[in-house]
Amino acid sequence: MRLNQDQVDDYRSNGFLLLESLLDQREVESLCAAFERDSMIPGPQVVTEEGGAEVRAVYSSHQRQPEYARLIRDPRILRPVQQLLSSDVYIYQFKINAKSAFGGDKWAWHQDYLAWRLADGLPAPRQINVGVFLDDVTEFNGPVIFVPGSHRNGLVREGRQDSAKSDQHLDPDDISLTPRQLAQLVSRHGMSSPKGPAGSLVLFSPEIVHGSAPNMSPFTRRLLIATYNDAANLPQPSGQARPAHVVCRDTEPLLALDMPFSENLETLTA
To answer: What's the order of all strands across the beta sheet hosting 144-146?
Structure first.
């Protein structure tokens, strides 16, 4: 799969691109089943909501679940990433954000690249996030909200909060924009929230300002986010490297599968 020129231009201009229904129902069901298995594995890779009952995020599932290991190499996903970024890319971070019904909490307004530059010494914002909708995304269940075009001016803030909200990852609250910064950006660019059926994808820039509200609906909203990094743009940590459950250590460029993820579901689940 290749993006057409209009799609490339939209991504460059807006900082995100929605691809509706790229994965079919059978594929989505297999990914959801893999998430249910993976979220039950104890360890620091599982981040819970305050109170510790509901799963908020799970990291590096592609290292434990074969469905995800093949998904990140699916030509329908990897080819557009290579087209927009580089022919040699690897998975830098993989996580699934889960918002439970009637309570999945917000994610603060932030830019991803700031977290990665501060924590891992990534030299440049040479990444692409690929968000996969594991559930239908509506205006009611806490969709990601983007500030279109906000990626074009670089980072809005430079540092992080003095105190860390979590010792498992760099939480968006630690690098959140101030109300004044966000108001100025929104007054210039507006806000946009991609929505669509499960199996849709949204590609988005590491510098685009984004956040989300709590899930007010009776339906779960799970979003898989695979972050691809240019293989020539390796982290340069100045201190202790973040743990492997957050940052993927395998930096070998990925090769695309010779067939879509769906054509091998039987061998994955046998």
So the answer is: 107-110, 210-212, 144-146
**Alpha-carbon span 141 to 47, nearest angstrom:** 19
Sign of the four-CA dihedral 128, 131, 137, 142: negative
Q: Which two tokens stand for residue 244?
A: 């492997």
Query: Is 70 exceeded by the pLDDT of residue 269?
Result: no
- Taking alpha carbons only, the member of 95, 77, 102 closest to residue 17 is 77
Instruction: Give bridge partners of residue 26 from the DSSP assignment.
Output: none
pLDDT digits 0-9 by tens, 61-85? 999 999 999 999 999 999 999 999 9
Cβ-contact 185, 209 below 8 angstroms: yes
Give the residue among 104, 108, 134, 135 at the shortest CA–CA distance from 215.
104
pLDDT tens, 137-187?
Answer: 999 999 999 999 999 999 998 776 555 545 545 778 889 999 999 999 999
- The two three-digit tokens of residue 171, written as one number: 């939480």
User: Which long-range contacts (C-beta less than 8 Å, at least 24 apart) are formed by 66-70?
Assistant: 66/268, 67/30, 67/31, 67/33, 67/34, 67/261, 67/265, 67/268, 67/269, 68/31, 68/34, 68/94, 68/224, 70/257, 70/261, 70/264, 70/268
